[in-house]
Design brief:
A two-stranded antiparallel ribbon has the order 1-2. Strands 3-4 form a two-stranded antiparallel sheet. It has two helices and four strands; from the N terminus they run ββαβαβ. With 74 residues, it is of the alpha+beta class. It is globular and about 30 Å long. The two termini are 15 Å apart.
Length: 74
């Protein structure tokens, strides 16, 4: 079982999940709502996150804009 530690302001939560799983889904399961107006296609930028650890390589869109998106990160 994999574990994700989420820090949002002073809130810190740990979410356990079965890998591999899209970060967007893990966050939703943990009660962290995000907007996804592009339907998870990776171009609206509403789900920007800061990540570290064992995650997928950035997509070309993420590399172009220098961000990570929860709808694209595994």
């Amino acid at each position: 079982m994999a574990r994700l530690i989420v820090r949002q302001g002073t809130d810190r939560r740990e979410i356990e999940f079965e890998a591999p799983l899209l970060l967007q889904r893990i966050l939703e399961q943990g009660g962290f709502a995000q907007l996804h107006p592009c339907g998870g296609r990776g171009f609206c930028g509403k789900c920007v996150v800061t990540v570290s650890g064992d995650v997928s390589a950035p997509t070309s869109i993420e590399e172009k804009f220098g961000v990570r998106l929860s709808c694209q990160t595994v």
